[in-house]
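hiii, so i know i said id send this last week but things got crazy w the move. better late than never?? heres the sequnce for the chain we talked about at the cafe, plus the structure i predicted for it. fair warning i was half asleep when i ran it
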Amino acid sequence: MSKYSVLVVGMGKRGMHHAAAFNANPKFQVTGICDIDQKRLDDAAAKLGNPQTGTDAAALAQAIKPDVFCFCTMPHLRMPFIKAAVDAGTKLIAFEKPLSLTSNELFAIRELLRQTGTRAVISHQHRYGQHYQKVKEIVASGALGRVHTVYGSATGWMTHMLSHLIDYTCWFNDYVPATWAMAQAAGVAKFADNHPSPDYIAGFVQFANGVRGIYECGAGAPDQPEVAKWWGKNRIGAQGTEGFVEVLTNGGWRAVTKTGGYQAGEGAMNYDADMPPYIQEMADWLDNPAKPHQCNFEHAALGAEIMLALQRSAAQGGQVALPLANPADEQALLKAKIENRPVLVSFEQNRKEFGLA
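okay and structure toks below
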């Protein structure tokens, strides 16, 4: 059986997760890896069957012409790698969230993919956890009655976590498009982070089917005391006329429904369990173009526009209509607007994580 060839760019923790998962799937073979750190590159190659290596992603892509171009890099590096993949004739591009830092970049990426017909997948892979799957099952079953609200909160800052919150709630709501968003933001310390963000952002989203979305990310987001791991204190759920259901990233799931009463189950984010189905769906999509990946670009782009609209609202005030009509630099808008004063936190551990201890 022939295998789809894969180039993985970025040999940090996430890059190695991806590369190992590709090689573990019989449909794929990692034929190239790239990193600017030669030692990291050499160490990774020894663990991956010694594929071709290089420090220039575009040159390596031209040399091996991979079927899949996967990059796991910081969020300011998106368009150069997507262009390198397209120029090499790649069939599918897989990359980390968030999809983009600005709508300037989102619009450019979307147009390039449309022009070339290149498929893309964004790594919102938490959904494959058994606890996320159970929550989606309950929502889809109708056990909540008419769903009127979806919500997500995370203590991690925006560029790390908001993309996840929005994508999974959009999943619960069957990816119905949003019509507007409104938000506020505070704190500037995390703009210096490699995932630049306001320290806290919170807002509301109206979806076309009448469902309301409510989101919080960062220092002001509430604690989830049932969860020990700080990065796992993420609560994502749905409320309906006959009950509610929610997932905690590192704390299982729980629900109350009219017919089922109180229910709960275990679950925690686990790359070893979540990556294989994420990778397998890429093979399925390559085999059958009519079977798109759950984490496909169009799904992710709906969430990306929501995330960027929330930022525009926080910077400019008022409601922001969706879909976005014109591109902008939301990072610059936020940095110019948010006052340089300490953010107010919701619980003591956030004080340490946001440099206030």
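btw The chain has two domains: 4-125+272-296, 130-269+304-337. thought thatd interest u
miss u guys!!
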